[in-house]
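Go through this one:
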Amino acid sequence: MDRDTLYSIGELARRTGLTVKTVRFYSDKGIVPPTDRSPAGYRLYGLDALARLDLARTLRDLGLDLATVRKVLDREASIPEVAEAHANALDVQIQTLGLRRAVLRAIASRGPTTMEMDLMHRLATLSRAERHRLVSDFVDDAFRDLDDNPEFVALMRSALPELPDDPAPEQVEAWVELAELCQTADLRIALRRTAEDQAQKPSPQGVSALHDALDQAMRERIEEAVSAGILPAFAEDASRAETLGGLYGHAFERADDGDLRRWLLARLQATTDPHAERYWHLLATINGWPASPTLAPVHTWFTTAFAMSDDDDHQGLMR
């Protein structure tokens, strides 16, 4: 063998820019095996050692472990295969780091106790399947033995939390609160009551769009008063409530009901239960959905207007 083409560890280090210690380490690990030995017993390396060292350094800089680097250099695995596998592994790492960052941001803004912080971390790091299972178990428990409203139960099962790979701190906080809310009896009772109420008073086909339109019309009429903190104060407002109440009753085929007011307020109350509203708000935050407008102002407006109308009727009888 032509010893002019062989290099000592020191020469390899100078040619590659690596330290002698690093070259010796790679040699000891079999990444760059010696080609020969000098008469004094020192290790000597051929030209291929330069290429192996350059490739080994590149792969290590990309984060591959020594065992994988050796497989590539020994052609036990191709570079494209290794690159694909490593890229997939990095995807998982990036997702994990993004979630950790979001949890830390949420902790920084929330200032939880040690126990709360541990709960936040454990809940946030649940897998997608585990998050779905938590909500599914809650739905199973809330609607056990309820067969009258399968559409509502199906809606609950289809609307599951989808925490993104790189969530914002508010999404982590929303998920933690949602998971805690699903453990409460108040939410189970509220949602079951809504399902039972809908089953007892089914809406005719095509009414939901009209229902939404009426909601929007009422919001537009009361938005300014609600935002200013002003409640209706004149008889004409009570009259308007009667008119809108009649529209609601007609939409739900309840116009002939003698106790329309009680039905309407009960219906709005079921829709605006604070626990149920909070559940849907948190779910929208987690999934990045637009927040649904609350019906609470509508309920307040109707309640106040109807009460004023009753007072006016009472005063008229007294005159």
In short: The chain has 15 helices and two strands. The longest helix spans residues 79-110. The beta strands are 36-37, 43-44. The CA atoms of residues 145 and 214 lie 34 Å apart.
